[in-house]
Write a structure and sequence with these properties.
By secondary structure, the protein is mainly β. The protein folds into 2 domains: 125 residues, Sandwich (Immunoglobulin-like), CATH 2.60.40; 159 residues, no CATH class. Strands 12, 13, 14, 15, 16, 17, 18, 19, 20 and 23 form a 10-stranded antiparallel sheet that branches. Strands 1-4-7-6-5-9-10-11 form an 8-stranded antiparallel sheet. A 3-stranded antiparallel sheet has the order 2-3-8, with no helix packed on it. It is globular and about 60 Å long. It starts with a helix and ends with a strand.
């Protein structure tokens, strides 16, 4: 009888200790990681050939709890050009994702040549850095009102990503390109995408699809469905799927001028059989944290501010 009483007492004590531990253990939440900005929203800077740089709404990942705001510091050659503030569009209440909107008139015109860095801070914490170079070239077109053109180089040329649609995980490629990439070439330059595995062409844009780069759109986001190589008989190419990219090998994604075959970008990645090897900068805990790139993007058209997987690939 005494043994039974001891057993019950021990059980109650263990249960009480477990209950106390459960109440005191920190919950895993958005605050487990420092806030970071979506690379895609940072790439959505408004830029043009006249040197305009305009800030847009920014998606924040791992947002701190409560109403938050932030600051934006733009530097050129390590000297501050402008400072702005931005405000949360809605109370995140500790949600993983939220959105910040810059104050009015958050832009500069006629950006001078130099090395630029935009530092985004959220709730007093440095969140993300976005660095790029600006150069100015003479415009030799005698019929143009613009005597010079501003060229931007940086993450637009560096990053692209895959996402996957539908039950079959059809491959979609998102990349940034525009007139900025074809200065001095034909006003409307047709571009195609090719995907190679170990040097062999396995897919890309279909045989009818091109993207036109022109000075009217200095840098745009493009999203393209990827297809397999046409077999010469079928009415259309089958979709390229995630399973096709999971095959082990060394991959290249080429963005090329359809008319001249000149390669404008070459992205590289590796697959190990179970999937695309993640880019190191997308690994949780990457340091410095201001260089971390979250493997998620806002789902365009989402009604509930939803995010989806984005597999980042980097150009040479």
């Amino acid at each position: 009888m005494q043994k039974s009483i001891k057993t019950v007492s021990a059980t109650v004590a263990v249960a009480a200790a477990a209950s106390t531990l459960a109440m005191t253990a920190p919950a895993v939440s958005a605050q487990t990681y420092p806030p970071t900005l979506s690379m895609r929203s940072m790439l959505e800077l408004s830029i043009n050939q006249n040197g305009h740089i305009g800030l847009e709404d920014q998606n924040v990942i791992f947002s701190p709890s409560g109403m938050i705001g932030g600051t934006i510091n733009m530097m050129r050659d390590c000297e501050t050009v402008r400072d702005w503030v931005f405000f949360e569009r809605n109370n995140s209440n500790g949600a993983v994702f939220t959105q910040l909107r810059p104050e009015n008139l958050s832009f500069i015109d006629g950006a001078a040549p130099g090395a630029y860095t935009i530092l985004y801070s959220v709730a007093g914490q440095p969140a993300s850095e976005f660095s790029f170079d600006v150069s100015v070239a003479a415009n030799d077109d005698p019929f143009s009102n613009t005597r010079s053109e501003t060229h931007f180089s940086g993450p637009w040329q560096q990053w692209a990503y895959f996402d996957f649609d539908g039950a079959n995980d059809n491959v979609q490629l998102t990349f940034w390109a525009g007139g900025n990439d074809v200065m001095g070439q034909a006003d409307r330059t047709p571009v195609i995408i090719q995907i190679l595995r170990d040097g062999e062409l396995i897919g890309g844009t279909n045989r009818y699809q091109t993207f036109t780069l022109s000075g009217n759109n200095w840098m745009d986001r493009h999203r393209a469905p990827m297809t397999q190589v046409w077999d010469g008989r079928s009415p259309s190419e089958p979709n390229l799927t995630r399973a096709d990219l999971n095959v082990p090998g060394q991959y290249e994604v080429r963005m090329a001028n359809k008319d001249t075959d000149d390669v404008l970008r070459t992205y590289r990645f590796q697959s190990n059989g179970s999937g695309i090897v993640p880019h190191p900068r997308t690994e949780l805990g990457y340091q410095p944290s201001t260089q971390y790139i979250a493997p998620r993007v806002y789902r365009v058209g989402s009604q509930n501010f939803e995010f989806e997987e984005a597999v980042r690939i980097e150009a040479e």
